[in-house]
Amino acid sequence: MKAEIITIGDELLIGQVVDSNSAWMSQQLNGHGFQVVRKTTTGDDEDAIIAAIEAARSTVPLVLVTGGLGPTRDDITLRTLCRYFGAQLHFSEEVYTDMERLFRQRGRVMNELTRLQAMVPDECTVIRNQAGTAPCTWFERDGSVLVSMPGVPSEMKWLMTHEVLPRLAQRFHRDLHILHHTCLVRDYSESELALHLSGFEDRLPSLVKLAYLPQAGIIRLRLSAYGTDGKEATAAIALCRAQLESLLEGHLLAVEDQGTEVLLGDCLRARRCTVGTAESCTGGSIAALLTSVAGSSDYFAGSVVAYANAVKRQVLGVSEHDLQQHGAVSREVVEQMARGALHVLGCDYAVATSGIAGPGGGTPEKPVGTIWVAVADKDAVVSACYRFGTVREQNVQRTVQTALLMLLDRVRK
Fold first, then answer.
1. Averaged over 356-366, what is the pLDDT?
2. In sequence order, which residues have a C-beta less than 8 Å from that of residue 126 and are 6 or more positions away?
3. Distance of alpha carbon 410 from alpha carbon 413, whole angstroms
4. Cβ neighbours of residue 270 under 8 Å, at least 6 residues apart?
5. Residue 102 has what pLDDT?
6. CA angle 63, 68, 74 (to 5 degrees)
7. 136 phi/psi in degrees, rounded to 5
8. Does residue 71 carry a pLDDT above 90?
9. Whole-number Å distance between alpha carbons of 108 and 236
10. Percent of the chain topping pLDDT 90
11. How far is Cα 357 from Cα 371, in angstroms, rounded to an integer?
12. Which of 29, 158, 169, 265 satisfies CB 3.0 to 4.6 Å to 34 for a cystine?
Protein backbone atom coordinates (compact mmCIF):
# COMPACT_ATOMS: atom_id res chain seq x y z
CA MET A 1 0.00 0.00 0.00
CA LYS A 2 1.41 3.37 -1.04
CA ALA A 3 1.27 6.54 1.03
CA GLU A 4 2.39 10.16 0.90
CA ILE A 5 3.31 12.53 3.71
CA ILE A 6 2.63 16.27 3.57
CA THR A 7 4.24 18.56 6.14
CA ILE A 8 2.93 22.10 6.46
CA GLY A 9 4.63 25.23 7.73
CA ASP A 10 6.62 28.22 6.51
CA GLU A 11 9.17 27.44 9.21
CA LEU A 12 9.99 24.19 7.41
CA LEU A 13 10.47 25.86 4.05
CA ILE A 14 12.81 28.56 5.34
CA GLY A 15 14.87 26.07 7.33
CA GLN A 16 13.99 27.49 10.75
CA VAL A 17 12.67 24.09 11.85
CA VAL A 18 13.94 20.74 10.58
CA ASP A 19 11.25 18.27 9.50
CA SER A 20 11.79 15.28 11.78
CA ASN A 21 8.14 14.20 11.62
CA SER A 22 8.16 12.67 8.16
CA ALA A 23 11.30 10.61 8.87
CA TRP A 24 9.74 9.06 11.97
CA MET A 25 6.40 8.53 10.26
CA SER A 26 8.06 6.78 7.31
CA GLN A 27 9.76 4.31 9.63
CA GLN A 28 6.49 3.50 11.36
CA LEU A 29 4.55 3.18 8.12
CA ASN A 30 7.19 0.88 6.62
CA GLY A 31 6.83 -1.45 9.57
CA HIS A 32 3.10 -1.67 8.90
CA GLY A 33 3.41 -2.41 5.19
CA PHE A 34 2.94 1.12 3.82
CA GLN A 35 5.46 2.34 1.26
CA VAL A 36 5.99 6.09 1.39
CA VAL A 37 6.47 7.15 -2.22
CA ARG A 38 6.74 10.89 -1.73
CA LYS A 39 7.14 13.56 0.94
CA THR A 40 5.96 17.08 0.25
CA THR A 41 6.53 20.22 2.30
CA THR A 42 4.38 23.27 1.72
CA GLY A 43 4.02 26.66 3.38
CA ASP A 44 1.07 28.14 5.23
CA ASP A 45 -0.83 28.92 2.06
CA GLU A 46 -4.28 27.54 1.26
CA ASP A 47 -3.78 27.17 -2.48
CA ALA A 48 -0.40 25.46 -2.00
CA ILE A 49 -1.82 23.05 0.57
CA ILE A 50 -4.76 22.15 -1.66
CA ALA A 51 -2.47 21.61 -4.65
CA ALA A 52 -0.31 19.27 -2.57
CA ILE A 53 -3.36 17.33 -1.37
CA GLU A 54 -4.78 16.98 -4.89
CA ALA A 55 -1.45 15.77 -6.24
CA ALA A 56 -1.12 13.22 -3.46
CA ARG A 57 -4.69 11.87 -3.61
CA SER A 58 -4.40 11.42 -7.36
CA THR A 59 -1.62 8.85 -6.92
CA VAL A 60 -1.92 7.19 -3.48
CA PRO A 61 -4.80 5.95 -1.31
CA LEU A 62 -3.33 7.29 1.94
CA VAL A 63 -2.19 10.84 2.72
CA LEU A 64 -0.84 11.85 6.13
CA VAL A 65 -0.63 15.55 6.93
CA THR A 66 1.10 17.26 9.86
CA GLY A 67 1.26 20.88 10.93
CA GLY A 68 -0.82 24.04 10.93
CA LEU A 69 -3.30 23.05 13.65
CA GLY A 70 -2.32 25.57 16.33
CA PRO A 71 -4.47 28.43 17.69
CA THR A 72 -2.76 31.32 15.85
CA ARG A 73 -3.66 33.01 12.57
CA ASP A 74 -0.91 31.31 10.59
CA ASP A 75 -2.38 27.88 11.44
CA ILE A 76 -4.74 27.38 8.51
CA THR A 77 -4.76 23.62 7.91
CA LEU A 78 -8.25 22.90 9.28
CA ARG A 79 -9.76 25.84 7.40
CA THR A 80 -8.08 24.64 4.21
CA LEU A 81 -9.28 21.07 4.69
CA CYS A 82 -12.83 22.38 5.16
CA ARG A 83 -12.54 24.26 1.88
CA TYR A 84 -11.15 21.21 0.10
CA PHE A 85 -13.71 18.70 1.43
CA GLY A 86 -16.68 21.11 1.50
CA ALA A 87 -16.97 20.92 5.28
CA GLN A 88 -17.99 23.37 7.99
CA LEU A 89 -16.37 23.91 11.38
CA HIS A 90 -18.48 23.16 14.44
CA PHE A 91 -17.77 23.20 18.17
CA SER A 92 -16.96 19.80 19.70
CA GLU A 93 -17.81 19.37 23.37
CA GLU A 94 -15.68 16.20 23.51
CA VAL A 95 -12.60 17.95 22.20
CA TYR A 96 -13.20 20.89 24.53
CA THR A 97 -13.48 18.53 27.52
CA ASP A 98 -10.15 16.95 26.58
CA MET A 99 -8.57 20.38 26.34
CA GLU A 100 -9.91 21.43 29.75
CA ARG A 101 -8.54 18.28 31.33
CA LEU A 102 -5.10 18.81 29.76
CA PHE A 103 -4.95 22.46 30.84
CA ARG A 104 -5.90 21.54 34.43
CA GLN A 105 -3.15 18.90 34.49
CA ARG A 106 -0.59 21.45 33.31
CA GLY A 107 -1.80 24.19 35.65
CA ARG A 108 -2.70 26.51 32.79
CA VAL A 109 -5.76 28.63 32.03
CA MET A 110 -7.59 28.41 28.71
CA ASN A 111 -8.29 31.54 26.67
CA GLU A 112 -10.41 32.30 23.63
CA LEU A 113 -7.71 31.28 21.15
CA THR A 114 -7.17 27.87 22.73
CA ARG A 115 -10.95 27.40 22.92
CA LEU A 116 -11.05 27.77 19.11
CA GLN A 117 -9.11 24.51 18.82
CA ALA A 118 -12.32 22.73 19.76
CA MET A 119 -13.74 23.77 16.37
CA VAL A 120 -13.56 20.73 14.06
CA PRO A 121 -14.85 19.89 10.55
CA ASP A 122 -18.23 18.18 10.27
CA GLU A 123 -17.20 15.99 7.32
CA CYS A 124 -14.61 13.91 9.16
CA THR A 125 -13.96 11.53 12.03
CA VAL A 126 -12.40 13.39 14.92
CA ILE A 127 -9.69 11.44 16.73
CA ARG A 128 -9.20 12.77 20.23
CA ASN A 129 -5.69 13.85 21.10
CA GLN A 130 -4.68 12.77 24.61
CA ALA A 131 -1.22 14.36 24.27
CA GLY A 132 -2.17 17.90 23.28
CA THR A 133 -4.90 20.34 22.37
CA ALA A 134 -5.05 20.07 18.57
CA PRO A 135 -7.41 17.29 17.42
CA CYS A 136 -6.59 14.75 14.75
CA THR A 137 -9.03 14.53 11.83
CA TRP A 138 -9.69 11.57 9.51
CA PHE A 139 -11.24 12.31 6.11
CA GLU A 140 -12.37 9.51 3.84
CA ARG A 141 -13.63 10.03 0.31
CA ASP A 142 -13.61 8.10 -2.98
CA GLY A 143 -11.75 5.18 -1.41
CA SER A 144 -8.85 7.28 -0.11
CA VAL A 145 -7.98 8.42 3.39
CA LEU A 146 -6.43 11.69 4.55
CA VAL A 147 -5.35 12.06 8.17
CA SER A 148 -4.38 15.44 9.58
CA MET A 149 -2.27 15.54 12.74
CA PRO A 150 -0.52 18.23 14.81
CA GLY A 151 3.01 19.19 13.85
CA VAL A 152 4.25 18.96 17.44
CA PRO A 153 6.37 15.77 17.32
CA SER A 154 5.27 14.39 20.71
CA GLU A 155 1.59 14.82 19.83
CA MET A 156 2.00 13.37 16.35
CA LYS A 157 3.86 10.33 17.70
CA TRP A 158 1.21 9.67 20.34
CA LEU A 159 -1.57 9.87 17.78
CA MET A 160 0.25 7.70 15.25
CA THR A 161 1.07 5.04 17.82
CA HIS A 162 -2.20 4.87 19.73
CA GLU A 163 -4.79 5.84 17.14
CA VAL A 164 -3.77 6.25 13.51
CA LEU A 165 -1.70 3.10 12.87
CA PRO A 166 -4.25 0.76 14.50
CA ARG A 167 -7.05 2.35 12.45
CA LEU A 168 -5.00 2.09 9.25
CA ALA A 169 -4.39 -1.61 9.93
CA GLN A 170 -8.17 -2.12 10.10
CA ARG A 171 -8.97 0.09 7.13
CA PHE A 172 -6.41 -1.21 4.61
CA HIS A 173 -5.52 -4.76 3.62
CA ARG A 174 -1.80 -5.30 3.91
CA ASP A 175 -0.59 -6.13 0.41
CA LEU A 176 3.12 -5.47 0.95
CA HIS A 177 5.67 -6.70 3.47
CA ILE A 178 8.64 -4.37 3.88
CA LEU A 179 11.69 -5.56 5.78
CA HIS A 180 14.98 -3.75 6.39
CA HIS A 181 18.27 -4.91 7.83
CA THR A 182 21.19 -2.52 8.36
CA CYS A 183 24.76 -3.29 9.34
CA LEU A 184 27.71 -0.95 9.97
CA VAL A 185 30.90 -1.36 7.94
CA ARG A 186 34.29 0.25 8.54
CA ASP A 187 37.66 0.53 6.76
CA TYR A 188 36.12 1.01 3.31
CA SER A 189 35.35 4.02 1.17
CA GLU A 190 31.95 3.90 -0.49
CA SER A 191 33.41 3.16 -3.92
CA GLU A 192 35.77 0.46 -2.57
CA LEU A 193 32.89 -1.23 -0.79
CA ALA A 194 30.71 -1.09 -3.90
CA LEU A 195 33.45 -2.78 -5.93
CA HIS A 196 33.91 -5.43 -3.26
CA LEU A 197 30.17 -6.20 -3.24
CA SER A 198 29.50 -5.91 -6.97
CA GLY A 199 29.15 -9.67 -7.43
CA PHE A 200 26.87 -9.91 -4.39
CA GLU A 201 24.65 -7.17 -5.79
CA ASP A 202 24.45 -8.92 -9.17
CA ARG A 203 23.05 -12.02 -7.44
CA LEU A 204 20.45 -10.27 -5.28
CA PRO A 205 16.88 -11.59 -5.62
CA SER A 206 14.50 -9.25 -7.42
CA LEU A 207 12.66 -8.37 -4.21
CA VAL A 208 15.83 -7.28 -2.36
CA LYS A 209 17.73 -4.02 -2.75
CA LEU A 210 21.04 -2.86 -1.26
CA ALA A 211 21.69 0.77 -0.27
CA TYR A 212 24.91 2.50 0.79
CA LEU A 213 24.59 5.19 3.47
CA PRO A 214 28.03 6.69 4.18
CA GLN A 215 28.74 8.51 7.42
CA ALA A 216 31.92 9.84 8.99
CA GLY A 217 34.22 6.86 9.36
CA ILE A 218 31.60 4.18 8.65
CA ILE A 219 29.12 3.06 6.01
CA ARG A 220 25.62 1.88 6.83
CA LEU A 221 24.59 -0.93 4.48
CA ARG A 222 20.85 -1.48 4.26
CA LEU A 223 19.18 -4.54 2.81
CA SER A 224 15.52 -3.96 1.97
CA ALA A 225 12.99 -6.60 0.95
CA TYR A 226 9.64 -5.72 -0.62
CA GLY A 227 7.35 -8.71 -1.08
CA THR A 228 3.70 -9.67 -1.16
CA ASP A 229 4.49 -12.76 0.89
CA GLY A 230 5.87 -12.10 4.36
CA LYS A 231 7.61 -15.46 4.70
CA GLU A 232 9.29 -15.10 1.32
CA ALA A 233 10.56 -11.60 2.18
CA THR A 234 11.85 -12.77 5.56
CA ALA A 235 13.67 -15.74 4.05
CA ALA A 236 15.20 -13.64 1.27
CA ILE A 237 16.58 -10.97 3.57
CA ALA A 238 17.91 -13.59 6.03
CA LEU A 239 19.84 -15.34 3.24
CA CYS A 240 21.25 -12.07 1.88
CA ARG A 241 22.19 -10.95 5.37
CA ALA A 242 24.19 -14.13 6.00
CA GLN A 243 25.99 -13.77 2.66
CA LEU A 244 26.76 -10.11 3.31
CA GLU A 245 28.16 -10.74 6.79
CA SER A 246 30.40 -13.48 5.40
CA LEU A 247 31.75 -11.17 2.70
CA LEU A 248 32.44 -8.42 5.25
CA GLU A 249 34.01 -10.51 7.98
CA GLY A 250 36.54 -8.43 9.87
CA HIS A 251 35.05 -5.16 8.68
CA LEU A 252 31.68 -5.26 10.43
CA LEU A 253 31.40 -2.75 13.20
CA ALA A 254 27.90 -3.97 14.07
CA VAL A 255 25.24 -6.22 12.57
CA GLU A 256 22.44 -3.92 13.73
CA ASP A 257 21.69 -0.28 12.96
CA GLN A 258 23.07 1.25 16.14
CA GLY A 259 25.06 4.40 16.69
CA THR A 260 28.69 4.11 17.68
CA GLU A 261 27.82 5.76 20.99
CA VAL A 262 25.38 2.91 21.74
CA LEU A 263 27.90 0.23 20.79
CA LEU A 264 30.55 1.85 22.99
CA GLY A 265 28.14 2.19 25.88
CA ASP A 266 27.12 -1.47 25.68
CA CYS A 267 30.76 -2.49 25.58
CA LEU A 268 31.69 -0.36 28.60
CA ARG A 269 28.69 -1.56 30.58
CA ALA A 270 29.50 -5.20 29.84
CA ARG A 271 33.05 -4.68 31.12
CA ARG A 272 31.92 -2.50 34.04
CA CYS A 273 34.23 0.28 32.90
CA THR A 274 33.87 4.05 32.78
CA VAL A 275 34.88 6.68 30.26
CA GLY A 276 35.55 10.40 30.26
CA THR A 277 36.45 13.02 27.67
CA ALA A 278 38.90 15.89 27.40
CA GLU A 279 37.76 17.98 24.45
CA SER A 280 39.16 21.02 22.75
CA CYS A 281 38.07 21.31 19.10
CA THR A 282 34.94 19.17 19.65
CA GLY A 283 33.74 21.45 22.45
CA GLY A 284 31.92 18.74 24.42
CA SER A 285 30.25 17.11 21.42
CA ILE A 286 31.61 13.66 22.30
CA ALA A 287 30.29 13.94 25.84
CA ALA A 288 26.91 15.17 24.54
CA LEU A 289 26.60 12.20 22.19
CA LEU A 290 27.62 9.67 24.84
CA THR A 291 25.12 11.07 27.34
CA SER A 292 22.32 11.14 24.76
CA VAL A 293 22.01 7.39 25.39
CA ALA A 294 19.60 6.41 28.15
CA GLY A 295 21.46 4.78 31.03
CA SER A 296 24.81 6.36 30.15
CA SER A 297 25.30 7.23 33.82
CA ASP A 298 26.35 3.58 34.20
CA TYR A 299 29.62 4.28 32.41
CA PHE A 300 30.09 8.00 31.68
CA ALA A 301 32.22 9.72 34.31
CA GLY A 302 32.40 13.28 33.01
CA SER A 303 34.08 15.70 30.66
CA VAL A 304 36.59 18.54 30.63
CA VAL A 305 36.05 21.00 27.78
CA ALA A 306 39.57 22.38 27.63
CA TYR A 307 39.17 24.93 24.87
CA ALA A 308 41.67 27.37 26.32
CA ASN A 309 45.32 26.44 26.87
CA ALA A 310 44.99 27.65 30.47
CA VAL A 311 42.41 24.92 31.13
CA LYS A 312 44.64 22.35 29.48
CA ARG A 313 47.43 23.36 31.87
CA GLN A 314 45.52 24.00 35.08
CA VAL A 315 42.91 21.24 34.93
CA LEU A 316 44.47 18.51 32.81
CA GLY A 317 48.11 19.09 33.73
CA VAL A 318 49.41 19.67 30.20
CA SER A 319 53.00 20.93 30.19
CA GLU A 320 53.45 24.62 29.42
CA HIS A 321 56.72 23.72 27.72
CA ASP A 322 54.97 21.29 25.34
CA LEU A 323 52.24 23.81 24.58
CA GLN A 324 54.88 26.35 23.62
CA GLN A 325 57.19 23.90 21.86
CA HIS A 326 54.65 21.79 19.93
CA GLY A 327 51.40 23.78 20.04
CA ALA A 328 47.99 22.73 21.31
CA VAL A 329 47.39 20.67 18.16
CA SER A 330 50.05 18.04 18.66
CA ARG A 331 50.65 14.47 19.76
CA GLU A 332 52.37 15.59 22.95
CA VAL A 333 49.50 17.79 24.09
CA VAL A 334 46.59 15.53 23.17
CA GLU A 335 48.16 12.53 24.89
CA GLN A 336 48.69 14.57 28.05
CA MET A 337 45.06 15.70 27.84
CA ALA A 338 43.90 12.06 27.73
CA ARG A 339 46.11 11.09 30.69
CA GLY A 340 44.95 14.14 32.58
CA ALA A 341 41.31 13.20 32.04
CA LEU A 342 41.98 9.71 33.42
CA HIS A 343 43.38 11.28 36.59
CA VAL A 344 40.92 14.15 37.03
CA LEU A 345 37.78 12.15 36.19
CA GLY A 346 38.86 8.88 37.77
CA CYS A 347 37.70 6.83 34.80
CA ASP A 348 39.00 3.66 33.14
CA TYR A 349 39.23 5.14 29.64
CA ALA A 350 39.57 8.68 28.34
CA VAL A 351 39.53 10.24 24.91
CA ALA A 352 41.00 13.63 24.03
CA THR A 353 40.73 15.84 20.97
CA SER A 354 42.67 18.88 19.84
CA GLY A 355 42.60 20.34 16.36
CA ILE A 356 41.85 23.16 13.96
CA ALA A 357 38.18 22.88 13.08
CA GLY A 358 38.17 26.02 10.95
CA PRO A 359 37.34 27.99 9.00
CA GLY A 360 40.35 29.98 10.22
CA GLY A 361 43.38 29.24 12.34
CA GLY A 362 45.28 27.00 9.95
CA THR A 363 48.94 27.25 8.98
CA PRO A 364 50.98 25.62 6.19
CA GLU A 365 52.27 23.08 8.70
CA LYS A 366 48.86 22.56 10.33
CA PRO A 367 46.11 23.41 7.88
CA VAL A 368 42.43 23.61 8.77
CA GLY A 369 41.13 20.10 9.40
CA THR A 370 44.25 18.91 11.24
CA ILE A 371 42.98 16.93 14.22
CA TRP A 372 44.75 14.93 16.91
CA VAL A 373 42.84 12.26 18.86
CA ALA A 374 44.20 10.25 21.79
CA VAL A 375 42.75 7.41 23.85
CA ALA A 376 44.20 6.48 27.20
CA ASP A 377 43.73 3.77 29.82
CA LYS A 378 45.84 2.70 32.79
CA ASP A 379 48.19 0.71 30.54
CA ALA A 380 48.85 2.97 27.59
CA VAL A 381 47.88 5.94 25.46
CA VAL A 382 47.44 5.77 21.68
CA SER A 383 47.03 8.73 19.37
CA ALA A 384 46.62 9.56 15.70
CA CYS A 385 46.59 12.64 13.49
CA TYR A 386 43.90 13.19 10.85
CA ARG A 387 43.44 15.66 8.03
CA PHE A 388 39.73 16.00 7.44
CA GLY A 389 38.79 19.08 5.45
CA THR A 390 37.91 22.76 5.54
CA VAL A 391 34.27 22.72 6.70
CA ARG A 392 34.02 23.32 10.45
CA GLU A 393 30.82 21.36 11.11
CA GLN A 394 32.04 18.35 9.15
CA ASN A 395 35.40 18.43 10.91
CA VAL A 396 33.72 18.31 14.31
CA GLN A 397 31.39 15.48 13.25
CA ARG A 398 34.20 13.41 11.79
CA THR A 399 36.36 13.98 14.87
CA VAL A 400 33.54 12.82 17.16
CA GLN A 401 32.99 9.65 15.13
CA THR A 402 36.72 8.94 14.87
CA ALA A 403 37.17 9.41 18.61
CA LEU A 404 34.33 7.00 19.38
CA LEU A 405 35.73 4.39 17.00
CA MET A 406 39.18 4.68 18.57
CA LEU A 407 37.63 4.30 22.01
CA LEU A 408 35.58 1.30 20.92
CA ASP A 409 38.66 -0.40 19.46
CA ARG A 410 40.58 0.15 22.68
CA VAL A 411 37.80 -1.08 24.95
CA ARG A 412 37.17 -4.16 22.81
CA LYS A 413 40.86 -5.09 22.98
1. 95
2. 92, 94, 95, 120, 135, 136, 137, 138
3. 5
4. none
5. 81
6. 145
7. -100, 140
8. no
9. 54
10. 86
11. 8
12. 29
